[in-house]
Amino acid sequence: MSPPHGNTASADASGKLPAKDPKKKDDKKDEDLSEEDLALKQQLELYVERVQDPSPDLQKVALDSMRHEIRTSTSSMTSVPKPLKFLRPHYGTLKAFYETMPDSDQKKLLADILSVLALTMSAEGERESLKFRLLGSEGDIGSWGHEYVRNLAGEIAQEYDKRRGEEAPIDDLMGLVQQIVAFHMKHNAEPEAVDLLMEVEDLDLLVEHVDKANFKRTCLYLTSSARYLPGPDDVLVLEIAYTIYLKFEEFPNALQIALYLDNMQYVKQNFTSCNDSLKKKQFCYILGRHGLPFEIEDEMLGDGDDRETLQDIVNNTKLSEGYLNLARDIEVMEPKSPEDIYKAHLLDGRASAGASVDSARQNLAATFVNAFVNAGFGQDKLMTISSESSSGSSTGNWLFKNKEHGKISAAASLGMISLWDVDAGLAQLDKYFHSSDNHAIAGALLGVGIVNCGVQSDCDPALALLSDYVGKEDPSIRIGAILGLGIAYAGAQHDLIRQTLTPILNDPKATLDIIAFTSISLGLIYVGSCNEEVAQAIIFALMDRSESELGDPLTRLLPLGLGLLYLGKQVYVAYVDKWFSSCS
Hints:
Residues 1-36 are annotated as: Disordered. The protein is an all-alpha fold. Among the domains are: 335-346 and 358-385 and 395-489, no CATH class; 493-583, no CATH class. The chain is elongated, with a radius of gyration of 38 Å. It has helices at 22-32, 35-51, 56-72, 82-87, 91-100, 105-121, 128-135, 146-166, 171-186, 190-199, 215-226, 233-247, 251-260, 264-273, 277-290, 307-314, 319-329, 338-342, 351-356, 360-373, 387-391, 405-417, 422-429, 438-451, 461-466, 475-488, 495-505, 512-525, 532-543, 547-550, 557-565, 573-583. It is 61% helix and 0% strand.
């Protein structure tokens, strides 16, 4: 069969077509270029030839011209700059010639250009861009563009890991890191600067490069990154953020980080570094809201600071007063009843039926609704009404409309209604301590804990009242006192209470419910503290349980108390695993 028409002249004796001429292919590519691009391509090729000229002067002119073309070229995120594209075929040639050059300024200039060309030509993992940068001149690294700097940062991170494994020196790398971080910080690329410094484990370098324009963005990225870092890297990152905030006198943000780190030295430093009395009051409100026991020391005070006023704010002594003043200002002091919340009158046929029913479950629900809706206001329509006004009312004595545990909730609700107002709350609860009903006494004990929650006092009224009932025989009274202590001193890490409650966990006469609630109270008092003594006591109490007790739902409160000890401290949870494995 004869070859197709038109191909007979090109076929050789074997019937095969000859290979295409690469020169013709390049010529075709050149034809596709615009006149401007073709002129640039030819100009760059001429520079490549002159770089290889024996004359140093010609070499310098060619290298300077080539560098100028690359630096001034424009590019987008989707295309390679034209000078780099046209110089790509000559990358191998220039590399080979570089190896033959003697040490000179021209050789360093060529190394700079090869470093940029390696951005698109270097093989994976070779890190030739970094190699030639280290061999080149020490000029402005940012003059080659953002993409070059970003690529160089990635190669530095890889090279750093390699050298760290080989225990090789890294001084030359850190010099480049300094330049890159300075460039990023000046061009609103704070996250990239932080990432690079994390890779080379030198975040301290960041402090000297932040300024008033970028420190907030930098700290925001640091604090956000810390959530995803394992310990102790997360602590290191937060400490850098704290240092930066302190440097620019952003004291409230610095205090929040200090509290997150649970670093009391940083908290004190925040006070001593600030000279503004109003800001110090703000710090005290933050500490009070945090529920942290904290003593204002003399060296933390400045001119015009009143130690007693600041300490009262930290102790939340005036919290109830401020809360009630706000309630009066916005006119919400009028007590509300559960019916105001239910709005049952809006439901057809429900209001009349509901009014006649007086079940224990409904009364218990009303107790909780009443306590929460009137929390902190000191008055309500169920528990705090006077006997004269209640004698002719339909509500009667609300406490005795409940049964057993309902009475505990009703009495304890007085603590919620009088929340933070210790004097008034204890006066309201006092009458129930003289009751012959153990459930009313237990509720009053729990109410004492609630009314003292978050409020610190030198006389410790909650401890004085509740500690006398911890050893009582009646389980309800005992649990009420134990839980009251846990709520009143949540987060306080009070050693005297620990010494009072810890023996209960190992008491063979204590019932499971008492042990379970003791675990919860200790967890609340030492929440997030990782206290080893409390953790051991709870673990041993859990290990002493029998098979039948382990199946009881109350037993779940023991590991819950243990979890409270390590709240937000995941890195220390391995300690618990170690204990369980060593004791099993």
